[in-house]
């Protein structure tokens, strides 16, 4: 779903150079018919896509997107007839059968193709934002490719992905690639103060905690469930740091069951553990001002002393490898078991 905020450049935290370049190109009529926005999870891909959709349909002629006209307003409220977000149908609602999907299906793409040959209903362009486009089925990717080879004049497709290497190369070649990087923490701090009117000290701590990812900062501020999820996941990392091989083996079995029920959440937990061990590694070198999870600095310092730099680095490496394997659909039970048994343990003193 499109977001609920006004889509001015001031509401997109960071990426100002990219936004300016897009606005200038669109104002000159030099927009592409397909964009591929890449970058880490929560770095701002959706926000930039919404900004782009508003710029394409903005009624203002001097400054786009203005964030104030009817077009910008309707896009910001997710009620614009010509702007739609496509994503994996996790609960089967979109297909009307209640069956969970793990990919964007050929049926979803065929519907887009049928609609995109119709004239826009209320704006200048029909805009389709395809989230996690790397999860399109092979059939869906090939069908979309045919449309991109001869795109309708008043249609813009915006593809989003954190793993662009998994996208059909011919799709990538037909899109203008926009690569987003993590936002500098000072720029992120400034954006959080402007957008949420935060105290400088709170904004500074939050900007460091979210590791250059504005989406995480917003969730930390607005989503209590996410804050609890993050806290619980970090508690698990600390518990595993204290556990022996047998406890980790048992934990791996339960985690494999969690993975079967919710793949994305499980990978997100592993990624947070990887971040936590990175903090431990950094602390082992005495560089505590670069730690992401500042609220847990005491325990992080403790484990840095207990594990040392060599074992901390090994844990980061093993987690990185496990995440990569799971994203490539390796056997999850075996991958998680190897992870649990491969991570160094505390020596008994």
Tell me what you see in this structure.
The chain is of the alpha/beta class. It has 3 domains: 9-179, Rossmann fold (3-Layer(aba) Sandwich); 184-222; 224-342, Zinc Finger, Delta Prime, domain 3 (Up-down Bundle). Helix content is 55%, strand content 7%. It is built from 14 helices and 5 strands. A 5-stranded parallel beta sheet has the order 2-3-4-1-5, sandwiched between helices. α4 (106-116) links the parallel β2 (83-86) and β3. Residues 1-9 have low confidence and may be disordered.
Quick tags:
349 residues; 5 strands; Zinc Finger, Delta Prime, domain 3; 3 domains; Rossmann fold
CATH class label of the largest domain: Alpha Beta
- How many helices? The count is 14
User: How many domain units?
Assistant: 3
Assign the CATH superfamily of the largest domain: P-loop containing nucleotide triphosphate hydrolases
Number of strands: 5
In percent, how helical is the residue content? 40-55%
Strand fraction: 5-15%
User: And the CATH topology of the largest domain?
Assistant: Rossmann fold
- How would you characterize the largest beta sheet? 5 strands, parallel
| Global Rg | 22 Å
Structural class: alpha/beta
Topology order in helix (H) and strand (E) letters: HEHHEHEHEHEHHHHHHHH
Cα distance spanning the termini: 53 Å
CATH architecture field of the largest domain: 3-Layer(aba) Sandwich
Which residue ranges are poorly predicted, with pLDDT under 50 across at least 5 consecutive positions? 1-9
The shape, in one word, is globular
Mean pLDDT: 90
- Strands of the biggest beta sheet: in what spatial order? 2-3-4-1-5
């Amino acid at each position: 779903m499109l977001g609920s905020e006004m889509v001015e450049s001031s509401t997109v935290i960071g990426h100002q150079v990219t936004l300016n370049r897009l606005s200038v190109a669109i104002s000159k009529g030099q927009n592409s018919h397909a964009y591929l926005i890449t970058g880490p999870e929560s770095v701002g891909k959706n926000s930039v896509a919404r900004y782009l959709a508003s710029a394409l349909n903005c009624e203002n002629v001097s400054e786009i997107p203005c964030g104030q006209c009817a077009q910008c307003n309707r896009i910001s409220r997710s009620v614009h007839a010509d702007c739609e977000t496509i994503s994996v149908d996790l609960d089967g609602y979109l297909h009307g059968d209640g069956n969970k999907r793990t990919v964007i299906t050929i049926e979803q793409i065929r519907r887009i193709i049928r609609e995109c040959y119709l004239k826009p209903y209320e704006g200048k362009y029909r805009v389709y934002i395809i989230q996690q486009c790397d999860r399109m089925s092979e059939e869906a990717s090939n069908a979309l490719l045919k449309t991109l080879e001869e795109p309708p004049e008043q249609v813009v497709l915006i593809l989003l992905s954190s793993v662009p290497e998994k996208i059909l190369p011919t799709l990538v070649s037909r899109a203008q690639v926009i690569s987003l990087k993590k936002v500098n923490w000072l720029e992120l701090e400034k954006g959080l103060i402007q957008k949420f009117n935060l105290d400088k000290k709170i904004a500074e701590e939050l900007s460091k905690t979210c590791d250059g990812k504005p989406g995480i900062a917003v969730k930390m501020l607005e989503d209590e469930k996410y804050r609890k999820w993050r806290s619980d996941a970090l508690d698990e990392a600390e518990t595993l740091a204290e556990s022996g091989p047998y406890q980790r083996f048992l934990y791996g079995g339960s985690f494999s069951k969690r993975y079967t029920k919710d793949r994305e959440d499980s990978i997100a937990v592993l990624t947070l553990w990887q971040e936590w061990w990175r903090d431990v590694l950094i602390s082992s070198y005495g560089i505590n001002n670069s730690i992401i999870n500042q609220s847990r600095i005491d325990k992080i310092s403790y484990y840095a002393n207990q594990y040392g730099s060599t074992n901390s680095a090994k844990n980061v490496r093993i987690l990185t490898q496990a995440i990569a394997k799971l994203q490539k659909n390796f056997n999850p039970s075996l991958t998680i078991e190897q992870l649990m048994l491969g991570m160094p343990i505390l020596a008994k003193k």
